[in-house]
Each structure stands twice: as C-alpha cells, then as structure tokens.
Amino acid sequence: MxxxxxxxxxxxxxxxxxxxxxxxxxxPDKTGLGCDLCRILLFFGLNIVRGDVSTxxxxxxxVFWVIGKPNTRWNLLKTRLVEASPCFAWxxxxxxCYLSDSxxxxxxxxYLLKLACSDRTGLLYDVTEVLYKLxxxxxxxxxxxxxxxxxxxxxxxxxxxxxLGTQKRRDEVYENLRDAIGDSMMSxxxxxxxxxxxxRSPASSSxxxxxxxxxxxxxxxxxxxxxxxxxxxxxxxRAHTLIQITCQEHKGLLYDIMRTFKxxxxxxxxxxxxxxRGKNCEIDLFIVQSDGRKILDSxxxxxxxxxxxxELQQPLRVVMMNRGPDTELLVTNPVxxxxxxxxxxxxxxxxxxxxxxxxxxxxxIGRHLTGDREWEVYKVLINEEDSxxxxxxxxxxxxxxxxxxxx
Length: 407
Description:
Blueprint: H1 5-8, E1 9-12, E2 21-28, H2 33-43, E3 47-55, E4 59-67, H3 74-84, H4 86-91, H5 101-104, E5 111-118, H6 123-133, E6 136-145, E7 150-159, H7 167-181, E8 185-192, H8 205-212, E9 229-233, E10 241-248, H9 253-263, E11 267-275, E12 280-288, H10 298-313, E13 317-323, E14 326-334, H11 345-355, E15 360-370, E16 373-382, H12 392-404
Antiparallel strand pairs: 1-2, 2-4, 3-4, 3-11, 5-7, 5-8, 6-7, 6-15, 9-10, 10-12, 11-12, 13-14, 14-16, 15-16
Helix pairs in contact: 2-3, 2-9, 6-7, 6-11, 9-10, 11-12
C-alpha cells in the first residue's frame, strides 16, 4: 500500500501567536533522518521547543513543537520535509534509506551569480534574504568594494528547486533582487559553472592557525555557551544506552545533537527534548550503534561525549582579529560528514552586522580540514570608516547572539 504525502507530514499551526505549532512525521526510518529533518527546520528559521522521537529501526514517529515566524512558509516546509523522508524516495522506486548522502543523490549544479551595485549598510543582508526566500543556497562567496563605493558580489550558489537553469527561474531571481536593491543595482548575471570550479576553497593558513590551534582547549577570544552536563547510563535499559544532556538552549541545538549522532553512525530509538524555564534544555536519548547494540566500549563512550560537549559548548566559533589596519570577523562551524554546512550562517552574520549599522568591505567563505574534520570558515572584513562608533567587542557579541538565537 502506498503512503500519501499528507500522512507522512502533518503540520498543525498554532492558533495563538507565541504558542508552538506541532509538526508530526510518520515514515520509514534511516540513520541520520533526525539530522536531515532538524536541518530543514533550522533552514526555515524555526525554533524547536520540544521534541519526541520514537523508532523500532524500521519505522519512526517524530513530533516537533516549534515556534514559527509570521512569514513562515508552512506549505513549502511540508514539501521539503516530505522530500527528506524515505517515503518520498520509495514513491519513485528509489531505496535510499541505507545509502549515504553522497550515494543517494548526485551533487546539485553550481551556478555563479554576479551582482554589481552601489554600496550601503545592510546590502549584503538584503541580498542573502532574497536568496534564502527563493531557496537558493550560498556555497561560496567573494565580495569586494571599490574605492568609489561600488560593490561586486560573486555568489556560487545551488538551487534547492533545481530550476536555476531555466530563464523563468533566473528572471524570478532578478526581479526579487531588483525589488530589494532598487535602482542602485547596476548589473546582474547568472550562469552554470563547469566541474573544474569547486564550491569549496581552503581557508588561509593564518586563519586556520588562529581558529584551530587550540582545539581541545578553550580558545582565547571565542565565546562559549554555559556549562554542559552529559551522562551515559547502560543500566536503565537492557537494549539501549541512555544519554542524558542538560545544557543552555541555542539556535539549532537539536540539529547539533542529531548531526553528531549521524556522523557517529548512531541511531536514536527513543528521545525526548524539552526547554525548561531559563532557557535550560533537558534531553534524554536511548541510542544504539549501527549494529543495533548498546555502547559498552568506554573509549567509544568517551569519544561521543567529548564530541557532544564540544558541539554544545561551541556550536560555532566567533572571533575578531587585526589584519594590519583593518578588522576581520571570523566565524566557523563544523561540516557534516556528508559535506553539508550549517544553514543560514552567512545570512545571520549579515543580519547581525546590519542591526548595528556595520558595513562589510569584503567577505569570503572557505573550508578547512583539521584532523578528520572539515570546517566552514566565514571571513568578513569590516569597513571601519563607516563603523567607528561600534566597538569590536560589540560586533563580536552581536554576531554571536544572532547566531545563537539569543537576540
């Protein structure tokens, strides 16, 4: 019997502003499904305030209580959640439940979007907001400002809807950018780039040294969340290892946890997530390894706890640096083993700088490998001539608070 998409994802929107909407997902299971779903919720800007997960290894049932925004596109959200579920693949005769992300779907086409316009405060945010609403993901960016106040933006992007090769879609992008930028927009072009162009460029060695020289310690100048408590219990359940986490709430918290389990190839059989008063979170997760057994090896337990603690204390790193006479903002976050970066980071950086009227002189996105992990690195050069009234500590705090969802 086929599974109707209406039955896979059910969204019950809240009737009162401030109350959570309820998203119910009922579909076949696969390792990493929780991570994929939480990533979509994070992309749509939803804050998960409570969650329940249950699976028998073949079928799963998930419920998320989320706080949306007035402009949340619920119908589009449902479509993306259905597409992420194994049911969607089965409907087209594709069995991808046990395939890795790279095996399940080919990499999307990469396009180069060229945009030239007059500079102003908040310009980069307005552009990223348009691309976000159109479901166009920024993979790499190169932004530069000329002495006469002109900006040349080079965005390497992918299209979630896979329509950017059509003239209709390109016209839609142009019209939305034109509405956001206005008459200061001087030129616009978008084209498919060849396979010789990669969306990932390495971060410079100096940046890497600053951000990653003290992994395992508390890096100087980088802010962290409050204390994190993680306990492992193998006595409460005969078949599962219980992980109990208490920590401070932040934007994308459940995604960070699910991403860690996905990278470790660990399956959650049952889980409960709640936010208590004071923004403190309590998470109980009954988990098993890929072979369906408990985690009894102490070294594996220590590795998992260490990684979880690092992800929850510092889901992102934010630091201000001196580059000669200039000031540079550096932000970095870990990349999934599948190669996917954290959603909305560049968008939130641009939003934070717009809030404090800070201009961006140039910006780049790169990637850095350290050990067995890959990191996404955002480098933003601040235009200090237009931002003299804003201290460096204020810039760092505003960016951090926006990324954490605390402002």
